[in-house]
Amino acid sequence: MSERPLMVIPQPTLKRLVVYHQWLKQLQERGRDVVSCTVLARDFKLDATQIRKDLEIAGIAGTPRVGYRIDAVIASIESLLGWTNVNDAFLAGVGNLGAALLGYERFTRQGVNIIAAFDLDPAKIGTKIHGKPVFSLTKMAPLAQRMKIKIGILTVPAPAAQTVADLMIAGGIEAIWNFAPTALQVPEPIVVESVSLASSFAVLLNQLQHQRHKTT
């Protein structure tokens, strides 16, 4: 399948497409070939019109009285999100979170291939974690530049995050996936996507409280 032209996808649509993809993969593994928009709307508690709009962005049109071919929807979503082009990435910070991300095999299927990790801990430098080599942080920038790495994953403690981000940028990295609990100051056109585990958990607790309030 040829790559479709680059487009800006609204973030809510992007998040829903990722969820659709995960669910459709499960249906595919159970032997399903086709799914209707009605079933999608029911399972995701969304309006069927919204789902049709989302799938239209992915270039998919359903067949009347039949529905959507699951394999075609999965392929189109993966193409739209860039998952068919695996991007090499460096990870900085091999603590518990960093080590866990190194072992997360689904990344490769979602377009990310972590090829090396970096840390300052002498006990970790020179080892392999989940098959990925760990180098000294001092080697990250020159290696990124030489290997033309454009994606950096940041899993260092907050006080070190800005310094390590600066090293990534110095090495030519253009996009940083930031798991450190702090905001980064980066120049244009560097892209930063920050993941706040604390904020996500706060949302979970808030939803739990609302659910308990409904049942009391």
SSE order and pairing:
Elements: H1 11-29, E1 34-35, H2 37-44, H3 48-57, E2 68-69, H4 70-81, E3 87-92, H5 96-102, H6 106-109, E4 112-119, E5 128-129, E6 132-136, H7 140-147, E7 151-154, H8 158-170, E8 175-178, E9 191-194, H9 197-215
Q: Round the Cα radius of gyration to an integer and report it.
A: 20 Å
By DSSP (H or I, 4+ residues per run), the number of helices equals 9
Sheet with most strands: 7 strands, mixed
How many domains in all? 2
- Numbering strands along the chain, what is their spatial order in the largest sheet? 5-6-4-3-7-8-9
Helix percent reads 40-55%
Examine the coordinates and then state which fold CATH places here, giving the name of the CATH topology of the largest domain. Rossmann fold
Explain what you see.
It is a single chain. The protein folds into 2 domains: 11-81, Winged helix-like DNA-binding domain superfamily/Winged helix DNA-binding domain (Arc Repressor Mutant, subunit A), CATH 1.10.10.10; 87-198, Rossmann fold, CATH 3.40.50. By secondary structure, the protein is an alpha/beta fold. The protein has helices at 11-29, 37-44, 48-57, 70-81, 96-102, 106-109, 140-147, 158-170, 197-215; strands at residues 34-35, 68-69, 87-92, 112-119, 128-129, 132-136, 151-154, 175-178, 191-194. A 7-stranded mixed sheet has the order 5-6-4-3-7-8-9. The chain has a two-stranded antiparallel ribbon with strand order 1-2. Strand 5 (128-129) and strand 6 form a beta hairpin. The model has no long low-confidence stretch (mean pLDDT 89).
